[in-house]
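Practice problem 4.
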């Protein structure tokens, strides 16, 4: 396998060992699948939970047996972390609190998780001359310049004022009392620290800025594969409403605009970063699909249509309801208006472009969610009741 695989410059790809922090999550599980099924690389999979990668760990007869090891640990307080980073050629850090409802209700946890807890990872990689791929977020851009222009300004139609570029666009956050920006600010600061480690101490790094990666196993369905109480991100929120036959809640009318990219497309981009260090090191990459842009209201409408198709259920008479941000998220919430990624750098360096349409990625995701929910309900009904 190794001899037949080439990088983008025609060189054979050598097997490496990857320390993946947060391997048990949505992105980590898909990346582990990709690495096991298509590459010769080894993975040291670090996480608190392994539910989403159990199918890769058992049984021992799997073709990749021995190439993936699960280490149950929390990077906040585990002395094994540096040793595992030393054992690997590359560390991928996916660990984060990245649920919008937590940003203004748990701002301290959000800041500690996304900045303080990441500091040892960066430090160990730098001190031990290990390459780092760090997952940041498109939220580091904050609000667009367009959002500050008058409503009737012709400049609002100029992409220069709203398309987000890694090397040009400013990072504009709301006021300090708007604690929703605790996540974006912590993520931006760790990016700056990583960049500084590269400039001053020679750390080999790549920073990934995901733009709404969507697909099976994303976020959670409250009470089924996640906590009973909780507010996941927008697509999982809408999935949950559809599964439970509830109206979809549109925060402040659902006017915010977002782009969505299929997880399998995005993982292709990450694999290119892993296997082409000469082209990826020192770069920050937007990874999204600017062709899949919709308002949150349009997303709700499309998801309702897709779910009707995959489930065979009719749509509700009142499919959506409007709620205020304060009512939905609590005090201190604020939002960005548009998130459209510029793809120039990743296309130039890695030749990557997303392929999957919004309808197709929603169909794949909702088919999975519907099946998972049905299985969970069936299982709960089969449990014997206590007398």
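Answer key:
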């Amino acid at each position: 396998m190794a001899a037949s695989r080439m990088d983008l410059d025609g060189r054979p790809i050598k097997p490496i060992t990857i320390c993946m922090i947060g391997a048990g999550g949505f992105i980590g599980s898909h990346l582990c699948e990709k690495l096991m099924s298509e590459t010769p690389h080894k993975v040291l999979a670090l996480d608190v939970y392994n539910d989403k990668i159990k199918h890769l760990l058992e049984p021992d007869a799997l073709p990749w047996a021995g190439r993936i090891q699960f280490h149950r640990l929390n990077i906040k307080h585990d002395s094994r972390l540096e040793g595992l980073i030393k054992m690997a050629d590359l560390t991928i850090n996916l660990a984060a609190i990245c649920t919008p409802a937590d940003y203004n209700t748990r701002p301290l946890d959000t800041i500690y998780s996304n900045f303080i807890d990441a500091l040892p990872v960066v430090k160990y990689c730098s001190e031990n001359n290990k390459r780092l791929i760090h997952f940041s977020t498109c939220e580091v851009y904050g609000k667009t310049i367009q959002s500050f222009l008058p409503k009737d300004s012709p400049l609002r139609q100029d992409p220069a004022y709203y398309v987000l570029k890694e090397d040009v666009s400013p990072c504009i956050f709301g006021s300090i009392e708007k604690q929703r920006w605790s996540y974006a600010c912590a993520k931006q600061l760790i990016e700056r620290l990583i960049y500084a480690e590269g400039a001053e101490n020679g750390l080999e790094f790549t920073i990934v800025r995901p733009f709404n990666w969507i697909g099976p196993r994303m976020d959670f369905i409250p009470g089924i594969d996640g906590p009973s109480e909780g507010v996941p991100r927008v697509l999982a929120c809408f999935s949950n409403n559809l599964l439970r036959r509830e109206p979809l809640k549109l925060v402040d009318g659902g006017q915010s605009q977002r782009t969505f990219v299929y997880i399998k497309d995005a993982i292709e981009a990450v694999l290119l970063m892993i296997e082409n260090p000469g082209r990826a090191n020192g770069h920050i990459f937007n990874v999204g699909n600017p062709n899949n842009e919709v308002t949150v209201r349009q997303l709700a409408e499309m998801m309702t249509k897709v779910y009707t198709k995959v489930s065979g259920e009719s749509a509700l008479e009142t499919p959506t309801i409007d709620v205020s941000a304060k009512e939905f998220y609590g005090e201190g919430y604020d939002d960005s208006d548009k998130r459209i990624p510029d793809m120039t750098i990743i296309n130039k360096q890695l030749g990557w472009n997303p392929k999957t349409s919004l309808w197709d990625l929603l169909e794949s995701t909702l088919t999975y969610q519907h099946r998972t929910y049905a299985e969970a309900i069936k299982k709960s009904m089969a449990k014997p009741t206590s007398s």
